[in-house]
Design brief:
This protein is mainly beta. The protein is built from five helices and 18 strands. The protein folds into two domains: about 200 residues, no CATH class; about 90 residues, TATA-Binding Protein.
Length: about 350
């Protein structure tokens, strides 16, 4: 019997419409987080899936998060390379403060060093290496909208963990009850490919979050556009609940420029840390005498440096009450009319 093409077409559209309706019902946005099972809910139901590093942390108000990884690898040419990274994140949500500090050492020189951030609504304090040497603190005002798009200020290599077999139940770690699992899969930004994992994870119960993880992994690491085959040892831990008090880094709370005396008649003062420039109506000898006297009175160790033909040079150093080692370099240029132009640079360790 010859089939009616129109009838077949109508049946096709009816089937498609029904499938779309069913699909739309299944993908309808949830209005309550309780309606959508979390990765921890699925784990409790016997369906392990990957758990993002920060999942569940929205329930925590005050804590420290610490991570460290040490890597050793060999490339195809037989060259050995080592690297490590550690970071510390401190959160104090009631005070609207967070602190992140990271230290990294790898064959990629441009990534090495220590970075520190203290963040509050609308303000970011950043401590890093100055181009002229030493350390420098910068303060930046940002909009709440811009800040809302920034989740991490330092690189956090650990991204996710997929639990495997349950090893222990009701283990107390950092005064938190947790269950211990093998780690089946792990996301580490440092590794391009992971071939072997020997590690475990502690998952807190109430509220549920990744409390601790440790172990070793093997695989391929990319450094400086080269592939290395090697292994790494890592540790991760969330701790010190309701014990964190965040303060500004000493370099930000006590800027070195506040310790540098300036003559009362200084004009055209330009402060661009770690540099300070100004003009004085005093002669070069008078300015030099001012700094020899004032710096010594404040406890600086002052010395004169032979002139290089571009003005008088002085150097001074001090260790601040906060433990900052500050080195000043002062250059005094004689100007027409008897005045002086003064350039001051400093380094902080």
């Amino acid at each position: 019997m010859r089939k009616n093409p129109l009838a077949l077409l109508l049946c096709f559209f009816i089937l498609i419409s029904g499938a779309c309706l069913i699909g739309s019902q299944n993908t309808e946005p949830q209005t309550s987080s309780d309606q959508l099972p979390s990765a921890f809910d699925m784990l409790a139901q016997g369906t392990p899936i990957y758990i993002l590093r920060d999942e569940g942390k929205e329930n925590l108000r005050n804590y420290r998060e610490q991570f460290r990884i040490e890597i050793t690898g060999v490339n195809e040419a037989g060259d050995t390379a080592n690297g490590f990274q550690e970071y510390l994140v401190e959160m104090d949500k009631p005070a609207d403060l967070r602190r992140e500090i990271s230290t990294m050492l790898t064959p990629n020189d441009y990534m090495n060093g220590t970075l520190e951030y203290v963040v509050s609504t609308g303000l970011i304090y950043h401590v890093g290496d100055a181009f002229s040497g030493g350390r420098i603190c910068t303060r930046e005002e940002v909009s709440a909208e811009t800040q809302s798009h920034i989740s991490d200020y330092v690189i956090r290599p650990l991204t996710s963990i997929t639990p495997g077999n349950l090893l222990e139940k009701d283990v107390l770690v950092n005064n938190v009850t947790a269950d211990v699992y093998e780690i089946d899969e792990i996301g580490l930004l440092t590794f391009r490919n992971i071939t072997n994992i020997n590690a475990k994870v502690w998952i807190a119960r109430k509220p549920a979050f990744l409390l601790k993880a440790e172990g070793t992994v093997e695989g391929q690491v990319e450094w400086d556009n080269r592939i290395y085959t090697g292994q790494a040892k890592f540790t991760y831990e969330v701790k010190d609940f309701d014990q964190v008090k965040i303060e500004l880094p000493p370099l930000c709370a006590h800027p070195p420029e506040e310790m540098i005396p300036v003559p009362a008649n200084a004009t055209d003062i330009r402060s661009n840390p770690p540099r300070l420039n100004f003009y004085s109506s005093d002669t070069a000898d008078q300015v030099k005498s001012f700094y020899l006297k004032e710096l010594a009175a404040q406890g600086w160790v002052v010395s004169e440096i032979p002139s290089d033909g571009f003005g008088d040079l002085m150097q001074a150093s001090i260790t601040s009450p906060q433990g900052l080692q500050i080195l000043l370099r002062i250059r005094i240029h004689p100007m027409g009319g008897g005045g002086s132009s003064v350039d001051i640079d400093w380094q902080v360790q």
